[in-house]
From TrEMBL:
The protein's name in its UniProt record: Sugar ABC transporter substrate-binding protein
SUPFAM superfamilies, per database record: Periplasmic binding protein-like II (SSF53850)
Signal sequence, renumbered to the chain: 1-20
Short name of one Pfam family: SBP_bac_1
Keywords, comma-separated and alphabetical: Signal
Keyword Signal: yes
Amino acid sequence: MKFKKLLLFMMIFIVGIVLVACKSDEAANNTDNGSSKVNETGMPIVDEDLELKIFANKPAQNEDNDWNDILIWNHYRDQTNINVKWNLINPDALQEKRNLALGGGDLPDAFFLAQIPNTDLLRYGAQGTLLPLNDLIDKYAPNLTKLMGNDPSIRSAITFPDGNIYSMPSLIEEDFLSLRLSARPWINEDWLKELNMDIPETTGDFYEYLKAVKELDPAGGGKTIPYGGTTIVELIQWLAGSFGVMNHGPSNANIDLDPSDNSSIRYYATTDEYKQLLEYIHQLYKEGLIDQSIFTIEWGQFLANASENLYGSMIFYDPIELFGEEIGSQYNSLAALEGPEGHKSYNKLSSSVWDPANLVLTNKNPNPAATVRWMDYFYSDEGAQLYYMGVENETFEVKDGKAVYMDHILNPEGDMTFEQAIAKQLTWLGSINGIIKADFFQGGESAPQSMAAAEKIEPFVPEEIWPRFTFTEEENKVLQSVGQDVTKYVEEMRDKFITGDADFSEWDNYVETVKKNGLEDVVKVYQDAYDRYKDNQ
């Protein structure tokens, strides 16, 4: 009886191996399918018309346009001989429809900007639903390959534990620091001058400025808010570098590199340095130097406060672009502050890998090689210019060697806004495709005030900012169970320590509780992921 059971188990095991091998062969065959029908360089990509069915997330900013008949995609179709039939999905329905398609529904030839999480890339890649792209990228994506050579973290960010690459990423030009910074710190320089104070250089200076602003009350009636923002997390991440934590950026929550050996992962939310950071922010909050509604404030209320000139400092986007010249021009940017132990770095910076899953190919794709070439164009200067600026003499013109939007875009007729004029012919609003470059991006992050802020911050940026790590299926199970328990508890206690709902005399108990919740397992997962990340570079 035992022998029969063993024989049955072995037969099931062998059949499983055969099925996996068949799927692998099928994926390999699909990968090669059509490669002989693609031009390896130049345009068009294919000599005979090729139709691709692509599932795409359509951001709200693109609500009124149809990608199946719009300038940018019509132009690129004529350039490549690849005609994309877009299945455009509203963001509210994106997750549901994407999951249905991946789980056995009507698979498209590719997914575009569909926000496929890493867990699904790995799962459906291993099943053969999504194609491995390693060889295709090496042969048909010279622009992406060059970028990965210049910045090895890109390859590491999109390589999964099984060694495969299942997607082509959305990237931010590494030197486009202003965009990678996202919201950044600003201080009301008019109030600084009124107080006869200099731009703060240390956390102590910043505290003294906030205290002086509260006492001065330049807004009157006690309405002045020394520091305001839309979330407390922005302040924590900005000050992290002043207290020696989050030393490789915020993409992996509460994880950085142990400075004592530079090879071990550290869970910094249990360190003395992190405690010191929270103690400092608690002091600001307790003394009324931080907006007391910062944990619940909505964007609309924040903007309303800003329009009344209530803020002495903030972490937000370009003030002139958002608040207008009169109020916005009062603000000057801050860089890194030196903390009490001499730490001074600016760690609140995103990876150059904005989204690993810009384009994902399925096993239904009729010509993977041509599809990879189609995507790779957007990692070049010409492709970035097309996507973000459009077509020369139709949406932009070159002045003094720089591409600028034409007047009908910059100053549209009637009640039409700049964004509405863009959306009539381009589709970049609300989405980063390929690589976004400062030369071809006309948003607030490329405004003079924002670029000057980035230049001031650049000397304090760490040499390496980590992207989000990739994990095995087993590791994901750990992160989705004990990992979530640890994170939830840490975030709850973080806010309580800041507001005073928890006293710092409870710190040791907090650390022990984090450990009991499974911290050791979480750290091991991140250590293994980090070791793979380094090996892939």
